[in-house]
Prior knowledge:
Elements: H1 12-19, E1 25-28, H2 34-47, E2 50-51, E3 64-66, H3 78-99, H4 103-115, E4 119-121, E5 123-124, E6 127-128, E7 133-136, E8 141-144, E9 160-169, E10 179-185, E11 211-214, E12 221-225, E13 228-232, E14 240-249, E15 254-257
Parallel strand pairs: 4-15
Antiparallel strand pairs: 1-12, 2-3, 3-7, 5-6, 7-14, 8-13, 9-12, 9-14, 10-11, 10-13, 14-15
Bound molecules: fe (ii) ion.
Amino acid sequence: MSWITPVETPTTQDFHDLFDNKISSIIIENFLTPTECEKICQEILAIGLSPFDYDFHDEATDAYRVFDSHYLYEQKTPEEYFPKAAESNLKYQVFCEKLGFNPAIRVKDYLEKHLLRPVSIAEQNGQQYTYALVRELKNSALLHADFAGFLDSHWSISNITAQYAWNIYLSDPQNGGDSIVYNKPWLREDDQYIQGDTYGYSHKVVEKKEYYSIIPKPGLLAFFNSRNFHEVHGSSDIRLSIGGHVGINDKHEIVMWI
Ligand SMILES: [Fe+2]
């Protein structure tokens, strides 16, 4: 089987192959029902989306979110991050109580069933990381990669040896909105391709690399290896998703965070 072909009925081996970048993605249709997606969208709009407050001066596109994410604190200290994480996780808990279900925990249960081992929320000194993030990316997302293994050692998730992203799409973005995943894992030296004062990389870094396009559809759950460079194309309509990261660490434990 080629790297590009997504897996639609995954086995335990497929989830390990995704960590090892032997396959592009695992795609589960109708992971959430249309009613569940509508309910989440209504609740998101009731809370209200906030802009991403990156430390970049030259942010290319506007993107919006609900809840906090570790990557906004990567350059800050654990003392700054964990109180915000606790606040965000509490807000997420209240959100889930209103929904009557917890989408991230449903993904965690799904992973445990398929990986045949426990999956936990990443922690550091008894404090939980954030683990679910709602994003609105109608205006696209620049080419980038996510890999906690390159973080400073004061973050417990820096012991991650392989990582993927999970996303459940909640709205139909109509035209566009594809996630493009390139078969090109991020290496330190690729940082020479960062463009200006943004988080985005030049497409030179993925030149001639094979890629797979994930087409968002409400209720669809997609996993891809987030160490691979990826980007989101702009869309005509609102593009809401909820997602996070899953990693395997040097002790072979599986953890979730975002
Ligand atoms: Fe990403």
